[in-house]
Amino acid sequence: MADSPSSGGENKGVCTAGSWGRKLKEKAKYKRIMLKLSGESLADPKNSENLSSSVINELAKEIKEIHKLNVEIAIVLGGGNIFRGLSPKASHMDRATADYMGMLATVINSLALQDALESNGVFTRVLSAIEMHSIAEPYIRRRAVRHLEKKRVVIFAGGTGNPYFSTDTAASLRARELHAEVILKGTKVDGVYDSDPEKKPNAKRFTSLSYIEVLKQKLKVMDATAISMCMEGEIPIIVFDMFKKGNLKKIICGGNIGTRIHTA
User: pTM score, two decimals?
Assistant: First the structure.
């Protein structure tokens, strides 16, 4: 059976609201997005699992909801749930070696999410910056664009393929290469704060920030390279709580969710 994008039925490309699925006049706000997720988003924090099938399946369902709206979806996953190049456990290692191990961790996460998405009827391709033909396609920009045009979800594994660059930078790079309209960074908090909200209950949440403000205040959104790349390409970033059900779809439908980082 030839693969084809999962059908959204008569509501394809249309955002809905209400218990009866009432159609709204506006369609999905974005045509092509980059979704950046940490490796921890695939883990169960209560059980300290590196990979949780139930968590990954719920994430796949959230992605499927926006896929039904005819949105072209690119995804970059981190690998921190398995191995992080800058973690204390890697302090004795050569930085390049540790970073390559982190890149391999992103491949494991990408395959796990691909399996969950396809189990939910969403055709998916994994493209790796590090060639491993048996399990993933090599990253070729035109091939990635073609997959997106065919409404396949594309997961980019292996970071940029180079040490010393984070998966945030990989997401920014791929977003610019693919002309994504926005980067959606899913986190465990509901936006960007002036201090850690878990340690300081009175921390202030920003609804909007400029790239320069993020860099000047050294806010822990993305690393400076990733922010600078988005600033040059004028790609807005929306930081939001990925763990709250329905948030991803609300953003796609134009909802005011999380913190928006954009040109001043």
Answer: 0.90
